[in-house]
Design the sequence.
């Protein structure tokens, strides 16, 4: 039977490096995807995810399972993401594999970059069609705390109590955040929502 | 139940996470309130749209970078970690200790400080070792001759 996150983390605390590898394998994908949807840049999302794992590792000596491991880990991730978004240290641009990325080259001429060439290891079958772009833009338009609430609620399937701890708010404040976020999303995604609602 | 109270329950109802105790009141309101019923349908549609976002795997180098960061971390601290000093400080302290020991050792090997009177004596030693000078030295003439005449050895008289 697979060990729980808490058991793994306690083993890491005891010096078992292999347990840390298991945690890394278990959460690398959801963490990177959460951070990408927050900061909207794949490279920065991976940098932040690496920072999360590093902080988890650093805290191993003092780790006490007072909360769920996911609550703790996503709290670190959310704080890093919110700081990143608020500091505007990263450019929030959509990383589309198919769409060319225009950058200002020296001399003022725009240069088209092939994203696939820049990131040759990105899976080529991920095609961002207009529908997905619209959904991404709608999430991106949300204020960062509403965005974090939606992403944690929808993709990490964390319960309200956990999300409230991560966002340092009450459960009622969290439910209000989610309600306002979904209200905004249903307006932004109205064309798609209308299609979805058709019998 | 009012529409305002529905705000805090609607998402849980859409996601199926509503408390069983609240479900009857919520379903009753939704059945009776067209705006709330529409909101439930649209929230459900939004939730479905969010599931369409693709999930991607981290880059192949991701794990290696995490391992490199972890490997660069200092060893786990323990209760005597406060004794640990930065390498430069440790080197400087060691160098100082070695220098102190070396200086102390060499100090013992250096010739002792010579007092002025002794220095003067040693300066005068060639004179004092001169037999003719000693035998003509007035104060010594009052002393009885030694039992064994070893004046050729150049011994310094005990009383100066």
Sequence:
């Amino acid at each position: 039977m697979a060990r729980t996150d808490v058991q793994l983390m306690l083993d890491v605390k005891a010096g078992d490096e292999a347990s840390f590898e298991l945690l890394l394998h278990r959460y690398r994908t959801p963490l990177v995807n959460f951070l990408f949807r927050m900061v909207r840049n794949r490279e920065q999302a991976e940098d932040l995810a690496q920072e999360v794992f590093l902080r988890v590792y650093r805290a191993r000596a003092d780790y006490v399972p007072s909360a769920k491991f996911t609550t703790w880990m996503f709290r670190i991730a959310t704080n890093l993401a919110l700081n990143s978004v608020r500091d505007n240290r990263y450019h929030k641009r959509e990383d589309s594999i198919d769409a060319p990325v225009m950058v200002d080259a020296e001399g003022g001429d725009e240069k088209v970059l092939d994203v696939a060439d820049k990131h040759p290891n990105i899976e080529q079958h991920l095609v961002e069609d207009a529908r997905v772009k619209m959904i991404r833009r709608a999430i991106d338009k949300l204020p960062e705390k509403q965005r974090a609430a939606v992403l944690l609620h929808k993709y990490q399937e964390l319960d309200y109590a956990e999300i409230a701890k991560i966002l340092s708010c009450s459960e009622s404040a969290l439910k209000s955040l989610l309600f306002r976020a979904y209200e905004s999303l249903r307006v932004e995604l109205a064309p798609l929502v209308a299609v979805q609602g058709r019998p | 139940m009012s529409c305002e109270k529905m705000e805090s329950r609607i998402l849980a109802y859409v996601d199926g996470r509503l408390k069983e105790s609240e479900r009857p009141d919520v379903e009753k309101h939704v059945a009776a309130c067209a705006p709330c019923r529409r909101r439930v349908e649209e929230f459900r549609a939004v939730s479905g749209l969010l599931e369409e976002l693709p999930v991607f795997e981290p880059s192949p180098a991701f794990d290696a970078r995490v391992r490199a960061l972890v490997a660069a971390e200092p060893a786990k601290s323990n209760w005597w970690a406060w004794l640990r000093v930065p390498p430069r400080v440790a080197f400087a302290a060691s160098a100082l200790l070695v220098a102190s020991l070396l200086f102390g050792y060499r100090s013992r090997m250096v010739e002792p400080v010579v007092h002025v009177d002794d220095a003067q004596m040693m300066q005068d030693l060639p004179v004092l070792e001169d037999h003719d000078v000693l035998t003509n030295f007035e104060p010594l003439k009052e002393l009885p001759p030694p039992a064994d005449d070893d004046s050729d050895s150049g011994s310094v008289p005990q009383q100066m």
User: Anything to note?
Assistant: The radius of gyration of chain B is 52 Å. The CA atoms of residues 14 and 43 of chain B lie 7 Å apart. Chain B touches chain A at residues 7-12, 15, 17, 39, 41-43, 45-60, 62-63, 65-66, 69-70, 73, 76-77 (CB under 8 Å). Residues 3-50 of chain B form one domain.
